[in-house]
Amino acid sequence: MIGRLNHVAIAVRDIAAASRIYRDTLGARVSEAVAQPEHGVTTVFVELPNTKIELLEPLGDGSPINKFLERNADGGIHHVCYEVDDILAARDRLLATGARVLGSGEPKIGAHGKPVLFLHPKDFCGTLVELEQA
Amino acid sequence: MIGRLNHVAIAVRDIAAASRIYRDTLGARVSEAVAQPEHGVTTVFVELPNTKIELLEPLGDGSPINKFLERNADGGIHHVCYEVDDILAARDRLLATGARVLGSGEPKIGAHGKPVLFLHPKDFCGTLVELEQA
């Protein structure tokens, strides 16, 4: 069912500093920072040959990564995103196994403009999993 | 400098259960479990079209992931591994920027039979980074 690893998301306190680490220290290609107020984050993409790293900085008091950064003061790996061909079929298959989908269970449009869902970390090895329609 | 994302490593308490989650629930191709006593872990690889997920279960009292699992009872994302063409050149470039390499600073042979180094999470957005010779 799951296909490509679309991205690994890393939550950071200071996205300008994190961009410099990935660009200058690790020598990777790094996008401009883009504020995504509807998702409560500012994003930078680190483009690797086979996938990407998504750097996330909180945007606003209700940011979904505020709590994570309270628990992880230096930042850290926040989630992995796997692509699926059919997000509704994937969701229904997962629900049938007893796995929990976060929120309403209806896909939302994610930071890349495609439908996404998040799965409960307790059901997936302590890992927050995002599914994105390929 | 950094190239492909070689793998994302997820530490788990029960690798048989984690394998079932990735194989049966998420529908991915999953390798057999392999004990790697010299690394203090048992590994399973989840093969995705563009990269892999490495599931890690502690093996022995001195396992390098024991502490992580004490702090993360359900398991969690442990590290990311980026490929580099020349691991000694990469190390020297990183050291010149003031970044910290863990251990002796000399590459060891990793779980894939290639030279690897680990970088200090405090210098890389709270993320444990493994570099592997491509």
From TrEMBL, chains A, B:
Main EC class the enzyme belongs to: isomerase
EC number: 5.1.99.1
Highest taxon, organism lineage: Bacteria
The VOC domain, residue ranges: 4-134
Family according to the record: Belongs to the methylmalonyl-CoA epimerase family.
Alphabetical list of CDD domains matching this protein: MMCE (cd07249)
Pfam families per UniProt: Glyoxalase_4 (PF13669)
InterPro entries in alphabetical order: Glyas_Bleomycin-R_OHBP_Dase, MeMalonyl-CoA_epimerase, MMCE/EMCE_epimerase, VOC_core
UniProt GO molecular function: methylmalonyl-CoA epimerase activity
Organism of derivation: Chelatococcus albus
Protein name (database record): Methylmalonyl-CoA epimerase
Record keywords: Isomerase, Metal-binding
NCBIfam families noted in UniProt: metmalonyl_epim
